[in-house]
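Tokens for chain A. Residues wanted.
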């Protein structure tokens, strides 16, 4: 863990020199600095909708859009960490609830509570308790406002390609059905599975989704509670299934980002992609029609479960523009912003009292799933385990996609899980 931290700090230090420091506002200057990694086509469009809502609500405030490109925040988080450690925080930044928020940002004292907003703006009942209370609260104080909730375990497909190859996909998909489809596509010379693994997290997410598909939501909870071991036969079976999937991936997977992999799917160069529903933002941006150009189903075996990848915003301790930051958080939590942002982002509003009719078919499906399915936190997106474990998982996936050594993969994670349990 120490070695990882020092590498991150070194990399972040290099990147930070490239970023102009943001000084506190001079008297009368109205600014707000928002830090995120939302730079893909769909992500940027959604962030822009959030900014426009804020500027309509608060004309005259200049927004500093501090983004660091790289899906899943892999490049952004180290930069942020250095800024926070160096006492140069943005006013507010994107964070996942759970370990990321509470362990990486609250524990070292980088955030202020925002509990008051939940009272003043009547949010006590508007946001799901399971997330707010369980994953963003410490000592009865709440530390973030959720912008939206992504579903991580979605399998997207190119509808025309699937139809053309005589593949039928119903409301859910078993692993057997999935592999039968992959074989058909392979025989037709089409890469079945599009992965954008240049940031290894996308492969880790394919593993995460597959793991859930094999061990189920109860197994998931036990695994992250330390009641089930990473070398359990079922976990190893998931590793084998994940290894089998590697034989169907696009040949250029290691050179592509997640959104480039979605573009390949759109262009008919790959049939499926297992990716969180930020992918829906890319389909929308490319004017793709749901159920005509693209379709979706739960990742094999995960029907009935919803991997939560929620996006929240924090309030920095000693925020350079505190008043504007509080106004931003109020905006993020408003119905207006939740409707404008999530329609473009692919996530569902975190508020449960929005107007559902304003959302497309995919969003309706995801809202239904969120309401009735088992909700489980994502490890790949920082919620279920400490950052050190998340990093070990990424490193272990990097090794595994090359050597397919199930025992090494399992043993590495057993050790890392023991270390994070002792760190708790
Ligand atoms: C996740 C984040 C999403 C999306 C995705 C890909 O970590 O929660 O909002 O941006 O990364 O970049």
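Reply:
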């Amino acid at each position: 863990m120490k070695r990882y931290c020092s590498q991150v700090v070194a990399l972040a230090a290099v990147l930070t020199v490239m970023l102009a420091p943001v000084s506190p506002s001079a008297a009368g200057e109205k600014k707000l600095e928002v830090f995120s990694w939302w730079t893909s086509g769909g992500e940027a469009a959604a962030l822009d909708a959030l900014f426009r809502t804020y500027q309509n609500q608060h004309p005259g405030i200049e927004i500093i859009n501090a983004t660091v490109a790289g899906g899943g925040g892999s490049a952004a988080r180290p930069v942020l960490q250095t800024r926070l450690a160096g006492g140069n925080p943005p006013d507010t930044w994107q964070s996942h609830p759970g370990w990321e928020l509470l362990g990486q940002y609250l524990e070292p004292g980088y955030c202020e509570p925002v509990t008051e907003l939940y009272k003043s703006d009547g949010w006590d009942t508007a946001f799901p308790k399971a997330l707010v209370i369980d994953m963003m609260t410490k000592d009865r104080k709440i530390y973030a406002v959720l912008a939206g909730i992504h579903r991580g375990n979605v399998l997207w497909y190119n509808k025309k390609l699937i139809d053309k190859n005589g593949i039928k996909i119903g409301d859910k998909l078993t692993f057997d059905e999935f592999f039968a489809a992959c074989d058909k596509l392979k025989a037709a010379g089409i890469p079945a599975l599009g992965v954008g693994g240049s940031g290894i997290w996308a492969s880790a997410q394919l593993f995460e989704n597959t793991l859930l598909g094999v061990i189920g939501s109860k197994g998931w909870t036990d695994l992250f509670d330390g009641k089930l071991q990473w070398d359990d036969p079922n976990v190893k079976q998931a590793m084998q299934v994940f290894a089998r999937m590697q034989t169907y991936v696009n040949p250029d997977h290691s050179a592509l980002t997640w959104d480039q992999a979605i573009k390949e799917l759109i262009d008919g160069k790959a049939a499926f992609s297992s990716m969180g529903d930020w992918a829906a933002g890319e389909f929308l941006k490319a004017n793709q029609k749901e159920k005509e150009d693209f379709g979706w189903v739960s990742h094999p075996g995960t029907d009935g479960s919803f991997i939560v990848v929620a996006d929240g915003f924090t309030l920095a301790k000693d925020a350079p523009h505190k008043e504007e930051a509080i106004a931003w958080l109020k905006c993020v939590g408003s119905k207006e912003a939740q409707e404008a942002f999530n329609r473009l982002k692919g996530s569902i509003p975190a508020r449960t009292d929005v107007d559902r009719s304003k959302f497309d078919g995919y969003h309706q499906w995801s809202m239904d799933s969120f309401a009735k399915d088992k909700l489980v936190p994502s490890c790949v997106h920082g919620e279920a385990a400490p950052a050190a474990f998340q990093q070990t998982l990424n490193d272990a996936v990097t090794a595994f996609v090359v050597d397919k050594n199930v025992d090494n993969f399992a043993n590495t994670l057993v050790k890392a899980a023991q270390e994070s349990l002792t760190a708790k």
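The radius of gyration is 21 Å. Residues 73 and 301 are 27 Å apart (CA to CA).
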